[in-house]
Amino acid sequence: MHKKSVLVGLLLTLFVVVLAGCGQTATNKRSNKLQVVTTFYPIYEFTKAVAGSDADVTMLMPAGTEPHDYEPSAKDIGKISQANVFIYSSNNMETWVGSLKSSIDEGQTKILNASHSIKMIDENDELKSEEAELADKEETTSFESTDNYDPHIWLDPENAKEMVTNISKELIQQDPKHKQDYVKRTNAYLKKLTTLNTEYETTLKNAKNKTFVTQHAAFAYLAKQYGLTQVAIAGISSDGEPSPNRLAELQTYIKKYHVDTIFTEANDSSKIANMLARETNIKVKGLNPIEGLSKAQIEGGETYLSVMQDNLKSLKTVVK
């Protein structure tokens, strides 16, 4: 995280030079609409759902980008500084935003943390929960403590509703003349999220098996909302690797409780999950954390809502 902050600082210095040469041109090209820059896909969709055609909404990270690894370029920083509103998910997901704030004129560019009102899950609490799930009464392997909070807030539809509401309030504040339209679109999208939440509740409430195994510990908010427990191979970061003891515990757990599926992610390295599946002779299925949709997915009409419904179908085959 320190290296990323240093890099962002260097880019900010470069950005000042770049902006001096081309900033006026960029300003002239802007339309009269509210200019909104969002970081990655869920935030983009939530914002676009509220904004409609009344604001120009762009996504900073290219389609298919891994948000955990993303670092803004000087060009990206320029885009943010030229916007009226910059919206990101959380300080725990976009860890580079803190270094950026000192260089942005918040009189021109309002910076919104879309999850500022949501209580985040401490990764240590999540690890303890998994530890209890995996542990044999006679032998327990401890996990390393972290100072991280789980950033995957949007995977709980109720959290998504709160993020959309926060985004809506900000757009209304910055562009009050379109308040009526923003409110109308916000209510329409919130209704869709309420329907999604009801589908999850109805499908999962009577499940006898409440546990699922996943490659990446991205689903704590979803699991908490619906009374489930995720058992993750790796931690919060998608590129984390489990210890030999962790893998041994997982193998024992899978065999003891007759787990028949490991969930992996389309945008994530699944070598370890595939190896574990081969060694325990179980299936591998997809479960999407919606950290970013590919260009093909976006062009094919997939959305946060449709992917969440696909995730529910996948969960239904395991949590039953």
Automatic annotation (TrEMBL):
<dbReference type="InterPro" id="IPR006127">
    <property type="entry name" value="ZnuA-like"/>
</dbReference>
<feature type="signal peptide">
    <location>
        <begin position="1"/>
        <end position="20"/>
    </location>
</feature>
<protein>
    <submittedName>
        <fullName>Zinc ABC transporter substrate-binding protein</fullName>
    </submittedName>
</protein>
<comment type="similarity">
    <text>Belongs to the bacterial solute-binding protein 9 family.</text>
</comment>
<dbReference type="GO" id="GO:0046872">
    <property type="term" value="F:metal ion binding"/>
</dbReference>
<keyword id="KW-0813">Transport</keyword>
<dbReference type="InterPro" id="IPR050492">
    <property type="entry name" value="Bact_metal-bind_prot9"/>
</dbReference>
<dbReference type="InterPro" id="IPR006129">
    <property type="entry name" value="AdhesinB"/>
</dbReference>
<keyword id="KW-0732">Signal</keyword>
<dbReference type="GO" id="GO:0007155">
    <property type="term" value="P:cell adhesion"/>
</dbReference>
<dbReference type="Pfam" id="PF01297">
    <property type="entry name" value="ZnuA"/>
</dbReference>
<dbReference type="InterPro" id="IPR006128">
    <property type="entry name" value="Lipoprotein_PsaA-like"/>
</dbReference>
<dbReference type="GO" id="GO:0030001">
    <property type="term" value="P:metal ion transport"/>
</dbReference>
